[in-house]
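Sorry, any thoughts here?
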Amino acid sequence: MNERTVVLDHLNFFNKVISELLAIDVKIDEEDKALILLSSLPQSYNHIVTTILYGKKILILEEVTSISYQMRLEKYQIKRSRQDQV
Protein backbone atom coordinates (compact mmCIF):
# COMPACT_ATOMS: atom_id res chain seq x y z
CA MET A 1 0.00 0.00 0.00
CA ASN A 2 1.33 3.43 -0.78
CA GLU A 3 0.58 6.56 1.22
CA ARG A 4 -2.08 7.78 -1.19
CA THR A 5 -4.11 4.58 -1.27
CA VAL A 6 -7.41 4.74 0.56
CA VAL A 7 -7.40 2.22 3.40
CA LEU A 8 -10.80 0.86 2.43
CA ASP A 9 -9.54 0.20 -1.11
CA HIS A 10 -6.48 -1.52 0.30
CA LEU A 11 -8.58 -3.67 2.63
CA ASN A 12 -10.85 -4.62 -0.27
CA PHE A 13 -7.82 -5.59 -2.36
CA PHE A 14 -6.36 -7.54 0.56
CA ASN A 15 -9.63 -9.45 1.04
CA LYS A 16 -9.81 -10.16 -2.70
CA VAL A 17 -6.31 -11.67 -2.68
CA ILE A 18 -7.13 -13.76 0.39
CA SER A 19 -10.34 -14.99 -1.29
CA GLU A 20 -8.43 -15.91 -4.43
CA LEU A 21 -5.91 -17.88 -2.38
CA LEU A 22 -8.71 -19.70 -0.57
CA ALA A 23 -10.29 -20.52 -3.94
CA ILE A 24 -7.17 -22.46 -4.89
CA ASP A 25 -7.07 -24.18 -1.49
CA VAL A 26 -4.26 -22.15 0.05
CA LYS A 27 -4.88 -22.17 3.78
CA ILE A 28 -3.87 -19.07 5.73
CA ASP A 29 -4.67 -18.85 9.42
CA GLU A 30 -6.12 -15.66 10.90
CA GLU A 31 -2.92 -14.59 12.62
CA ASP A 32 -0.94 -14.90 9.38
CA LYS A 33 -3.57 -12.83 7.59
CA ALA A 34 -3.22 -10.16 10.27
CA LEU A 35 0.57 -10.17 9.92
CA ILE A 36 0.35 -9.93 6.13
CA LEU A 37 -2.04 -7.00 6.43
CA LEU A 38 0.21 -5.24 8.94
CA SER A 39 3.25 -5.71 6.75
CA SER A 40 1.40 -4.26 3.76
CA LEU A 41 0.65 -0.94 5.46
CA PRO A 42 2.73 2.12 4.51
CA GLN A 43 5.51 3.56 6.65
CA SER A 44 3.23 6.17 8.18
CA TYR A 45 1.50 3.30 10.01
CA ASN A 46 4.73 1.95 11.56
CA HIS A 47 3.92 3.31 15.02
CA ILE A 48 0.52 1.63 14.88
CA VAL A 49 2.04 -1.65 13.70
CA THR A 50 4.49 -1.53 16.60
CA THR A 51 1.69 -0.76 19.05
CA ILE A 52 -0.45 -3.62 17.76
CA LEU A 53 2.41 -6.12 17.87
CA TYR A 54 3.72 -5.10 21.29
CA GLY A 55 2.62 -7.50 23.97
CA LYS A 56 0.30 -9.51 21.72
CA LYS A 57 0.39 -13.26 21.84
CA ILE A 58 -2.28 -13.65 19.18
CA LEU A 59 -3.17 -11.24 16.41
CA ILE A 60 -6.77 -10.94 15.33
CA LEU A 61 -7.39 -9.91 11.74
CA GLU A 62 -10.59 -8.01 12.56
CA GLU A 63 -8.72 -5.97 15.16
CA VAL A 64 -5.94 -5.06 12.71
CA THR A 65 -8.48 -4.15 10.03
CA SER A 66 -10.48 -1.99 12.41
CA ILE A 67 -7.42 -0.16 13.74
CA SER A 68 -6.11 0.45 10.21
CA TYR A 69 -9.39 1.93 9.12
CA GLN A 70 -9.66 4.04 12.28
CA MET A 71 -6.15 5.44 11.72
CA ARG A 72 -7.11 6.53 8.22
CA LEU A 73 -10.21 8.26 9.53
CA GLU A 74 -8.17 10.10 12.14
CA LYS A 75 -5.63 11.23 9.52
CA TYR A 76 -8.46 12.49 7.33
CA GLN A 77 -10.07 14.37 10.23
CA ILE A 78 -6.77 16.01 11.18
CA LYS A 79 -6.18 17.04 7.57
CA ARG A 80 -9.69 18.41 7.32
CA SER A 81 -9.44 20.40 10.54
CA ARG A 82 -6.18 21.92 9.36
CA GLN A 83 -7.84 22.95 6.11
CA ASP A 84 -10.73 24.49 8.03
CA GLN A 85 -8.32 26.55 10.11
CA VAL A 86 -6.81 28.18 7.00
